[in-house]
Amino acid sequence: MKAIRRFTVRPVLPGPLRPLGELARNLRWSWHTETRDLFRSVDPGGWRAAGADPVRLLGSVSAARLAELARDRAFLRRLGAASADLDDYLHGPRWYQRQDPQGPGGGPLPAAVAYFSPEFGVTAALPQYSGGLGILAGDHLKAASDLGVPLIGVGLLYRHGYFRQSLSPDGWQLEHYPVLDPGELPVTLLREPDGTPARVTLALPAGRSLHARIHLARVGRVPLLMLDSDTEDNERGEREVTDRLYGGGSEHRLLQEMLLGIGGVRAVRAYCRITGHPAPEVFHTNEGHAGFLGLERIRELGQGAGAGSPGPEGAPGPGAVLDFDAALEAVRAGTVFTTHTPVPAGIDRFDRDLVARHFGADAELPSVPVDKILALGTETYPGGDPRLFNMAVMGLRLAQRANGVSTLHGAVSRDMFAGLWPGFDPDEMPITSITNGVHAPTWIAPEVRRLAVRRIGAHRAEEALSVGGCALWQAVVDIPDAEVWELRRTLRERLVTEVRARLRASWRQRGAGAAELGWVDQVLDPDVLTIGFARRVPSYKRLTLMLRDRDRLRELLLHPSRPVQIVVAGKAHPADDGGKRLIQELVRFADDARVRHRIVFLPDYGIGLAQKLYPGCDVWLNNPLRPLEACGTSGMKAALNGGLNLSVLDGWWDEWYEPDFGWAIPTADGSTAHEERRDDLEATALYDLIENRVAPRFYERGPDGLPRRWIEMVRRTMATLGPKVVAGRMVREYVERLYAPAARAHRVLDPETARALAAWKARVAAEWAGVAVDHVETVDHAETVDSTETVDSTETADSAPEVSVPVSVPEGAAASVAGNGGGRRAELGTALTVRAWVALGGLGPDDVEVQAVAGRVDADDAIADARLSPLKPVGGGDLAGRWVYEGTLTPDRTGPFGYTVRVLPSHPLLASHTDPGLVALPDARAVAAQG
Prior knowledge:
Blueprint: H1 18-25, H2 33-42, H3 44-49, H4 54-60, H5 63-70, H6 73-91, E1 113-116, H7 132-147, E2 151-156, E3 164-167, E4 173-176, E5 188-189, E6 199-203, E7 209-219, E8 222-228, H8 236-239, H9 250-275, E9 282-286, H10 293-303, H11 324-333, E10 335-338, E11 349-351, H12 352-357, H13 370-377, E12 388-390, H14 391-397, E13 401-404, H15 407-416, E14 431-433, H16 440-443, H17 446-456, H18 458-466, H19 470-473, H20 481-509, E15 529-534, H21 550-557, E16 564-569, H22 577-591, E17 599-602, H23 607-616, E18 619-622, H24 634-640, E19 644-648, H25 651-656, E20 662-665, H26 675-699, H27 708-725, H28 727-748, H29 751-767, E21 772-780, E22 815-818, E23 832-839, E24 848-857, E25 863-873, E26 882-889, E27 897-905
Parallel strand pairs: 1-2, 1-9, 2-8, 9-10, 10-13, 13-14, 15-16, 15-18, 16-17, 18-19, 19-20
Antiparallel strand pairs: 3-4, 5-7, 6-7, 7-8, 11-12, 21-23, 22-27, 23-26, 24-25, 24-27, 25-26
């Protein structure tokens, strides 16, 4: 018989053991070795059976064992030390608290930052992640906790999480969705002062409502709020909104994202009201899924209060209600948007009619005009589909600051979203980049950490792993070769043991009997070069590139003196049959009795497997289609443990690659070759690298049996990459480059200032049609010039007199001042006066900035590496409203050189000159003249 109701019975800990409950409820145990060791000692067998989850462990320990531990003085001393250490960690000053009170750039650091993400990969005990986005979000929270950054995480609690993966007998991916009971997870309900569960409510069409409770997970110092719609207050359809991560159709996903964004802001308000936590001054949207948070904050500002909290994040009080445009400016000032996708197909897009149906008078946010909401997400740029609502586009329009997650990805993002800022070059788009990092205490092997503690001490090791600091990582240089090599072999051997256990379990799931699995004991060898490849399985990551030439791969795996072994893992999206076919193709190759001891596919890739896999691999392989890997942090985790990277120059590897600590796989991107030919070329390059450079380096031994050149690469990897790839470096960059400036901008935009800025933007937009560059001329001050010729702006290119500077300047093009075949020449350092007649229409000089944009030009007169020089008004406007602007250009490089003149809106509160998306450039009537 089946139970009709399920609940969790929690143990009652004896008084002396009460601190165990506090230690278990704070997820710091997931990255704190001493606390994990303490729980393991409670019941080693139970610890393994509980999947290294303290909450489950304590629910299974017998009363007799608890009584025994309560009398064990040695255990109680360890418990007291762990409890005191956690208390110091939670309440003592850390990096953030030690910063200048005025913060970078003036003004205090943010009192709090709200960080929204659709998934969080904190620990396997809280399976609320699918891949890199969630792992990155979890590492962001953990690093913020280590640094003392006052972050509040916001997400959803999915009752089925992401799927568990297994394989069919023929290697096809199978998905399983276990039901997660919040009572068995390391979370607690957020409760009102009267003890009732706190909840948020969203209005749905046709008078329906969506209710959600708020679960709280403690990630060190950081509270993580997770909304759960599986409550009896909801009808069946609404209960299933948070059923599974990335599941369901368009409306299901839309409701999830409305709950995350709108409900998430309301959850933050409730948490701050109940606990007294400072209200966030900055809201960080991790990818577009949470973009609706900006609409809820606009609603708050438009109603004059912050959803029950007295004036949070600048929500005005009575009499300070803002209209939509002013509220939008206030919200943008304090919002940061991070994009993670390098391809438009990776962005959530909804039918506009579906979005419109869920907002307005009969649904959610009735006070916010629906047409304004739709305008924020509409793809109004060339190539966009105006019938769709784009979540990333809305995220960018609602955020004053945005970033990609590697230098290359920042450039890709600026190009991908260039249509939002027409008239500007891609490198001027207001999207910067902060390269991802990984939480070292989570991903570094215990053996590596113990080595660091022995070398530099526990305190300095913690600082190196959580904050960074090149000097601390340089201690690796002094470790003897033999010790480095023994560490690497230990990690490899531990991986071999893990692989055999998981492979045996996988084959049993596929239907194999114990008697036919004796061969598993010979799988992998702790003395063989081990390559790892693990990630999600979309087609662009090219899981099966290694299979392009199977005979060549077999030769590498079975080489008589330099064999290679490969460990592969990864999940395909449940709806991605193409990805599942790739997995099946690789599994069938790995099932071949000739090579199955040298290549394995391990199902159910997650945090638990990853923590064994990264340290045990000598080489980490990554071969995506460039530039489709936004960052690719798996290679960072390997590098922390001394693993060398073998990767396409994409994501983070593109900016930090050096031959001292890895290899770059040549790519055929940009080639006109067919994609099949491209993959053949890149696969051949991969085989050649492994055969001719990687394997020989690994097996090249000295008289003492040590591969000294390999060991030196391990040292260089850890000493050079270590301080770069840690998440502490990443979060410090977010604080200094994005959070602190956003907090300052937020504070400046009080209601009156927000209204004034919105009014100014509206006036400039209305008058911009009258702004034009009517005429441009240059005057050369070189001694060889004794006259100035000027061409009237009404002449056309065909009728203009012959002068050495081209007389016609098409829109956006450069005027050449040093060119070939008829273009004039100027000596390096020659001062050129640029004079422009600019029509401002109904605007004044205080509303604009006029710039000369100069630099080297190509054959099409496109300016590269542009330098900006402001031009200043040299007289009052004439009767036609034209102003004369003047400035000096000094060519600072030889070769073809050119310039153009442009007009931009200018206001002291703009985050960048591209912010309004307006620019006036010379047209074909504006001609240049020579001095």
